[in-house]
Amino acid sequence: MTETDLRTDAAASRLLGALYAGNARSVMLRGWQATRSTNWLVVVSGFFEPIFYLLSMGLGLGSLVGTITTESGQDVPYAAFIAPALLAVAAMNGAIYDSTWNVFFKMQFAKLYEGMLSTSLGPLDVALGEISLALLRGALYATGFLVVMQALGLNLSWWALLALPAVLLIAFGFASVGMAVTSFMKTFQQMDWITFLLLPMFLFSATFYPLSVYPQPIQFVIQALPLWHGVELVRGLTTGQVDPGLLWHVLYYLVMILLGLVAATRRLRTLFLD
């Protein structure tokens, strides 16, 4: 190895050492302990919200609607149509809450990250730790909801077993981008924009009715939304409509995760280290 290579490796090691100490787990465990002791009721309420939607709309309204024809031409009961969408929404909501409001409080009021970054932890440790906590919450919501779907007979295919890793991917994507976006927020009024954007995405991402009911220009807008990709991915798995096109949805979330991680790490470094 030449002297130039040694200098390059040393520079890369210093850069990585400044960004990542390999201890993201401690950040996640600290957040989990705080959640268990103070916010457990909020966590539990978030678990039941999609179940209430499923019972009221899937079973109640579904008795009037009957079956829905999916984009691939398959007829499925209305409850089985909206259940995977609500599963994706459950993962999104669990991940978003922890990666936005909790992160905002820790960053702007508790000043927690300043203390963390004064130790050996790097900004990537903090980002990964907080995102992992949000991912855990999204996974808990999704796992419980998937069990409810199975009990109600709404998983129409064995492919539904892959819905759980798919939901983890969705939660990871929203948590990464959520934390990156929150790092730019300064006031509660700005944070309200996140809720403002999530509501129409929840309602119009082919959650309760097929994409084909919209005019063509609006369909293009909806297909750019991250939740639509999550809904289509999970719905394809739970209804057995599996084809290579699902890989595009996976790729969408992989890019979303990468961009969110990079942006969140850079923002933490800019805010607290530079």
Write the layout of secondary structure elements.
Layout: H1 3-19, H2 24-38, H3 40-65, E1 67-69, E2 75-77, H4 78-108, H5 112-117, H6 123-151, H7 163-182, H8 188-204, H9 216-222, H10 226-238, H11 246-272
Antiparallel strand pairs: 1-2
Helix pairs in contact: 2-6, 3-4, 3-6, 4-6, 4-7, 4-10, 6-7, 6-11, 7-10, 7-11, 10-11
Q: How would you describe what is shown here?
A:
It is a single chain. The chain is mainly alpha-helical. It has one domain. The protein has eleven helices and two strands. It has helices spanning 3-19, 24-38, 40-65, 78-108, 112-117, 123-151, 163-182, 188-204, 216-222, 226-238, 246-272; strands at 67-69, 75-77. Strands 1-2 form a two-stranded antiparallel ribbon. Helix 4 (78-108) crosses helix 10 (226-238), helix 6 (123-151) runs antiparallel to helix 7 and helix 10 (226-238) crosses helix 11 (246-272). The model is unreliable at 3-15 (pLDDT under 50).
Give the tags:
single chain, 274 residues, two-stranded antiparallel sheet, disordered N terminus, transmembrane helix, Transport permease protein, ABC_2_transport, ABC2_TM_bact-type, transmembrane
Q: Order of strands across the widest beta sheet?
A: 1-2
Describe the sheet with the most strands: 2 strands, antiparallel
Topology order in helix (H) and strand (E) letters:
HHHEEHHHHHHHH
Q: Rough shape?
A: elongated
- Radius of gyration in whole Å, from Cα? 20 Å
Number of continuous helical runs? 11
Query: Total domains, how many?
Result: 1
Measured between the Cα atoms of the first and last residue, the distance is 33 Å
Number of strands: 2
Low-pLDDT sequence parts: 3-15
Mean pLDDT: 84
Quaternary class: single chain
Strand content: under 5%
